[in-house]
Amino acid sequence: MELHHTIPNKKVDPTGCLVQANKIINKKWSKHFQIYTDGSKNPETGSTAAAFHIPEVNYTRQFKLNPNLTVFTSELIAIEKALEFNLLQTVYKQTVILTDSMSAIQP
């Protein structure tokens, strides 16, 4: 199972990267239930948060976290919450979790 796809690190405008990423996602996982996750930490306030978004049903869930947590932990919590949500659904189909955190998915 392929865990990631790397877009070459060249000087590309953000729009070009988004277009390329969407092409890859649509080619490989268009029939899957797609869940996007993200975790973050505000460097100025120290606050942390996690979230997931499901475009197919236009559903977003956000979680305010303990400010002592790291960005890495917030990324993991976002993935965990997305998986928990997916397990509670009554309509089952193949699911793909899309994250920008390579460290969260590496063994």
Could you outline the blueprint of secondary structure elements for this entry?
Elements lengths: L13 H16 L3 E9 L6 E7 L4 E7 L5 H17 L7 E5 L2 H4 L2
Parallel strand pairs: 1-4
Antiparallel strand pairs: 1-2, 2-3
Rg from alpha-carbon coordinates: 15 Å
The mean pLDDT is 87
CATH fold call of the domain at 32-105: Nucleotidyltransferase, domain 5
Q: Helix and strand string, N-terminal first?
A: HEEEHEH
CATH class of the domain at 32-105: Alpha Beta
What does this molecule look like?
This protein has helices at 14-29, 71-87, 102-105, and strands spanning 33-41, 48-54, 59-65, 95-99. With 107 residues, it is of the alpha+beta class. It has a 4-stranded mixed sheet with strand order 3-2-1-4. The two termini are 13 Å apart. The model has no long low-confidence stretch (mean pLDDT 87).
Summarize the structure.
This protein has about 110 residues and is of the alpha+beta class. Helix content is about 35%, strand content about 25%.
Descriptors:
35% helix, 3 helices, Nucleotidyltransferase, domain 5, four-stranded mixed sheet, alpha+beta, 107 residues, single chain
